[in-house]
Each structure stands twice: as C-alpha cells, then as structure tokens.
C-alpha cells in the first residue's frame, strides 16, 4: 500500500445473495478496483451483519458517557461506534442498493440509523445541521427492476443523498441499472451501461 492509496468501503444490502444485481454491480466495482492496484476495498455485507432495528435502549446508550456505561450499554453503543469508525477510515463510500418497494432495504436503513448520530457525524447549529464527516465522496450503485430515475416514484435517490449530505458527504455519483425485470435485451443493455459508468468512476478515483 502506498501513500496515495484510496480506501473504498463497499456496503451491500441485497437479500438475494448471488442473484442480486446490486451485488453484481458491487463485484464489478471491486474487480476494477483490484485491477488498479491503488484502491483498497473493504466490504460490509449488511445482510450478513444482521443489525436489528434501532431501539430505545440502544439509542439511550449513546447518551451515556463511555466511562459511565454498564456492560449492556457498552455493547449496544459499540455497534454504532464501530460502524462510524469504519466509515471514517475510508475515502470513498460505495453503496450497492437494490430498490425494495420504492425504498431502501431495511438492512441499509438500520446501518444509516447507526451512523447518523448528532454530536458524532453531524451537529445542530443555528444555520441548520452541519456534517462532521469531511473529505469523503460516495458512489451509489442502484439496481432496479423497473425504470424510476428522474420520476416522482424515485424517492430512494434523494433519500440516500439527503442522509449522506446530513453527515457532510455531498459529492455523490449515482450509477443506475434500471429495467432489469423488463426483458433480456433491456436488462443486458442496462447492466452493460452501468458497468461502463462504474469503469469511468474508477478512473476518477
């Protein structure tokens, strides 16, 4: 590893295993990154991690000073703190995201619930929230059965950008692979265009 190495955190959230097209896009990113030699990739599989929904006890554990936490609070707070530390340790965040019922997977929401923390990754000011995660960029690899980008039904993209922007990640590139359930030719063309777009992004990292 050299001083110019770019560290990329690839976060996946597909429940379909090897059949997930968002995972296929993530694999393509990883393959191209490996061919560069100066991009170090860490993968975080949120389905395997199996985070529970955020509950009141875990939320409360964040409000207790670390030295004052009991064993249960310490264990609960560690979930969030480890994920935030992992995020901060990387230069590029790559989110491979399927579209489930017009939204993000619940596994990905559970991850965001741990990294969007007031006082840690953003703070409230008189001028509004201020992100505290600086100097990073994000790539969204969006795989969808239908065609939604640029329409009112695409609530996923602005939601992801808003959550990233809350913590200070405002440089966001989106690669869409859409219409993947609309037939063979359309599917293959969409995937090929997405792979080409990923290649272009890799060159700019």
TrEMBL record:
Its cofactor is FMN. Signal peptide: none annotated. Keywords: Flavoprotein, FMN, NAD, Oxidoreductase. Its EC number is 1.6.5.-, 1.7.1.17. Binds 1 FMN per subunit. FMN binds at residue 14. It is an enzyme of class 1 (oxidoreductase). It catalyses: 2 a quinone + NADH + H(+) = 2 a 1,4-benzosemiquinone + NAD(+); N,N-dimethyl-1,4-phenylenediamine + anthranilate + 2 NAD(+) = 2-(4-dimethylaminophenyl)diazenylbenzoate + 2 NADH + 2 H(+). Residues 7-198 form the Flavodoxin-like fold domain. Quinone reductase that provides resistance to thiol-specific stress caused by electrophilic quinones. Belongs to the azoreductase type 1 family. Homodimer. HAMAP family: Azoreductase_type1. This is FMN dependent NADH:quinone oxidoreductase. It comes from Litchfieldella rifensis.
